[in-house]
Design brief:
Pathway: Protein modification; protein ubiquitination. This is WD repeat and SOCS box containing 2. Pfam families: SOCS_box, WD40. There is one protein chain. This protein is mostly beta strands. The chain has a single domain, classed as Methylamine Dehydrogenase, Chain H (7 Propeller). The protein is 7% helix and 38% strand. It contains 5 helices and 33 strands. The strands form 8 sheets. The chain has a 5-stranded antiparallel β-sheet with strand order 1-9-8-7-6, with no helix packed on it. Strand 11 and strand 12 form a beta hairpin. The longest helix is centred in the last third of the chain and has 10 residues. The termini are far apart. 46% of the residues are buried.
């Protein structure tokens, strides 16, 4: 079920343009009407955007805006309202999040009405009712004609944009975002579909990770009829990611503490990464490849701390470990990590802070939000152009944070271009000076990094300065 909210009245709030990236606004949409086919739940669950509290109220200077959900009293404080996944479309024009109770909202980005000069416009925001709690979602590339023909083409000749949603009952629903129609369902998983990812090669290939201990590779050009099933995990699979060159995939098991690498060319198991923090009594939560594919980051947590291991996926060598220990046992798990589009930074979501931004190789955080034991963060996603990070919470809300933007050095750009297509073994075989080889293979990162997040908020850098 889809609801398209057209003719929405956008009322921008006042905010200094110097305090936010260009193109990002804070709006309070008042929805004038609901589509006739909306049921009671869809009418009750409406998102609205609100600016952060005034600075004197101890708000976080990095917070751009927060998208909250109006809920009927009968749904307050009940399970099922979590935002398990958020995603920007590949071109950055759309943003989607699972707002709980089986509802997906898709909004046009940027969230700004300045282009319309305050006039009433149809932003094209949509809501989708999936009928089951949504645990994973991902935007796809422009679909092949064989998929596009199953749904109507839009007026302006735009190609359909796909959105995949992974449900609690194991079903994956494929939606056409621009028309609001469900295209087809993918069935086969026997447990929660925890993560979804489309490779960056533009093909209609979808990879899903499930609590049924399997990964499945779906060919959407054939409506998912051609399926590859990858088995090897001994328990729930919590996260998966694909290397930028689409040659390999990584997956992490929640309880089996396995970090597995798979070949996407032969659909076979490559190796299990050993020797990281996850080999202790830790639970794995997330993984992500750097934009050049030369580094794999994995996140894990235990009762005494959380850990991020950086790996060389070609050699299985652990490059570095970032660790944070805390005083209260079991009160600070790490939920999600993601590299920035430039590869210079890593976004981190934990229980005690809504967002951290870390530059691998540095001992201090590049940016971190104020300490908040009730941050309830579950997921994060960078805008494709950088500068903004979206995080989802257990309350079904979404927060947009201003992320640092750094101009990459010429050395970094050269390394990224080279490592995108050249393996570690090929680099080490070149007749280059040792320091250059270490830089190209990321072995110049200190072996042990520790960030003790015990400093008070008064000692933290004011991020607006």
């Amino acid at each position: 079920m889809c609801s398209t909210h057209g003719n929405a009245e956008l009322q921008p709030t006042r905010k200094s343009p110097s305090s936010r990236p260009a193109g990002v606004g804070v709006v309070m949409p008042t929805l004038r009407r609901q589509a006739a086919e909306d049921d009671g739940l869809m009418r009750s669950l409406k998102p609205f955007l609100c600016p952060p509290p005034p600075r004197p109220a101890a708000s976080d200077p990095a917070l751009l805006l927060e998208l909250k959900t109006r809920r009927p009293p009968s749904l307050l404080e009940l399970a099922g309202c979590e935002t398990w996944s958020v995603d920007f479309s590949p071109d950055g024009a759309w943003f989607a999040w699972s707002m709980g109770h089986g509802i997906i909202w898709v909004v046009a980005w940027p969230l700004d009405s300045q282009e319309g000069h305050g006039e009433t416009t149809d932003r094209g925001d949509k809501s989708f009712s999936c009928g089951q709690p949504v645990w994973g979602l991902a935007f796809g590339p422009k679909p092949h004609s064989s998929v596009a023909q199953t749904s109507k083409r839009t007026a302006k000749g735009k190609e359909p944009l796909l959105l995949a949603t992974g449900l609690e009952n194991g079903v994956i629903k494929i939606w056409n975002v621009l028309t609001g129609h469900a295209v087809f369902d993918l069935r086969g998983h026997e447990g929660v579909v925890r993560d979804l990812v489309f490779p960056q090669n533009g093909t209609l290939t979808l990879i899903s990770a499930s609590r049924d201990k399997t990964l499945r590779i779906w060919d959407l050009a054939h409506k998912g009829k051609k399926v590859q099933v990858l088995s090897g995990h001994k328990d729930w699979i919590n996260s998966c990611c694909v290397s930028p060159d689409c040659s390999m995939m990584a997956s992490v098991g929640r309880f089996d503490r396995m970090v597995c690498l798979w070949s996407l060319r032969s659909y076979t198991f490559i190796r299990n990464l050993t020797g990281g923090a996850h080999k202790t009594l830790c639970l794995l939560s997330s993984c992500d490849f750097s934009p050049d594919g030369a580094v794999l980051a994995t996140a894990a947590f235990s009762g005494s701390g959380w850990y991020i291991d950086l790996w060389d996926p070609y050699t299985s060598e652990k490059l570095a470990t970032l660790a944070d220990y805390f005083d209260v046992y079991g009160k600070n798990q790490i939920s999600a990590i993601q590299f920035s589009p430039s590869g210079l930074h890593l976004a981190i979501v934990t229980d005690d802070r809504a967002l951290r931004i870390w530059e691998p190789g540095e001992r201090r955080m590049t940016m971190q939000t104020r300490r908040d034991r009730d941050s309830n963060g579950l997921c994060c996603n960078y805008h494709p152009q950088g500068g903004v990070v979206a995080t989802g919470t257990r309350d079904g809300h979404v927060r947009f944070w201003r992320a640092p933007v750094t101009v990459p050095s010429l050395c970094h750009l050269c390394r990224s271009a080279l490592r995108f297509s050249v393996s570690t073994q090929q680099i080490e075989a070149l007749p280059l000076p040792k320091r250059i080889v270490e830089y190209l293979t990321y072995k110049n990162i200190p072996e042990r990094l520790r960030n003790c997040a015990s400093s008070s908020d008064d000692e933290e850098e004011d991020w607006e300065s």
